[in-house]
Write a structure and sequence with these properties.
about 290 residues; 8 strands; alpha/beta; about 15% strand; 11 helices; eight-stranded mixed sheet
Length: about 290
């Protein structure tokens, strides 16, 4: 297990690719949009510089990471003989269908096919290929370099050998794993979606300011981040897409808060847009 292809140069894909390169993988990161590729390269450089400043990367290791990570414009520019492909695109089933059909036609027979979905069915995604036994969900957490867990979700047709391969990839990336039985939202996304949605309900009810609600959750419940801080980090559009899927599959408990819908319609998507619940500068620092 030495070669990895990551599809999607957003926050999650970039974090996965950087972490894999840090841990010795040769990585191709596929991002079709030129502007996004430039942003991805900038983010990776920021990761490297941060690692250097914190003493986690020597100059030699930084150069090795740069040499091991290649940003490409299409899947066809990556190595078809890679050991694992990890898809990390938005939670849109039609988009995932298109990508997995392309992956299935291009990569080698031995390649592990993983989706970084936080809510969607690996069984359904596996059905888009001719090898559903090799398809699995590997749910990484943001920010990937520092978050220690990967949820591994086995689909109906996923083989035990594929589960073991996914666990091996996670171990090589120095991550802890939990193997979860497939059900919408798995474990963490169901809980996180509820907390984030309820925070928006409290905000629209005037229970407290975003700062007060975040502080209460962090210090009262010992969460590392408040629900609004986390929502802005992962993207409020991503949070809304997850809630819509969970509402459709699990019922009224997950109906999105009207205020969250309003924020997304207004383009207040979080750090990546410069404004979500909070406002941010060009480097993503909160104002």
């Amino acid at each position: 297990m030495k070669k990895m292809t990551v599809i999607g140069g957003g926050v999650m894909g970039t974090g996965i690719a950087y972490t894999a390169a840090m841990c010795g993988f040769s990585v191709s990161l596929v991002e079709p949009f030129p502007q996004a590729r430039a942003k991805t390269a900038q983010t990776i450089e920021q990761y490297i510089q941060k690692g250097r400043k914190k003493g986690k990367l020597s100059e030699e290791e930084a150069e090795r990471v740069k040499a091991s990570l290649h940003i490409v414009a299409s899947l066809q520019e990556s190595d078809a003989n890679c050991d694992v492909v990890i898809e990390a695109v938005p939670e849109q089933l039609d988009l995932k269908k298109k990508i997995f059909e392309e992956i299935d036609a291009y990569v080698s027979e031995h390649t592990l096919l993983a989706t970084n979905t936080s809510t969607m069915s690996p069984t359904e995604i596996g059905a888009f290929t001719k090898r559903p036994h090799q398809v699995i969900a590997m749910h990484f957490f943001n920010p990937v370099p520092s978050m220690p867990l990967i949820e591994i979700i086995k689909g109906l047709e996923t083989s035990d050998a594929t589960v073991e391969k996914a666990k091996m990839v996670a171990e090589m990336m120095k991550k802890e794993t939990v193997v979860v039985n497939e059900f919408p939202g798995f474990i963490t996304s169901r809980i996180s979606a509820l907390v984030g949605n309820e925070a928006f309900r409290m905000l629209q009810e005037g229970v407290g300011t975003p700062e007060e609600i975040d502080k209460a959750i962090k210090f009262g419940l010992h969460y590392p981040m408040g629900p609004f801080e986390l929502g802005d980090l992962v993207g409020l559009d991503t949070r809304l897409n997850n809630l819509r899927y969970l509402h459709e599959t699990l019922g009224e408990t997950y109906r999105p808060a009207p205020l969250l819908v309003k924020y997304v319609k207004a383009g207040r998507l979080g750090r990546k847009a410069g404004k979500g619940v909070y406002s941010y500068d060009e480097e993503g620092k909160r104002l």
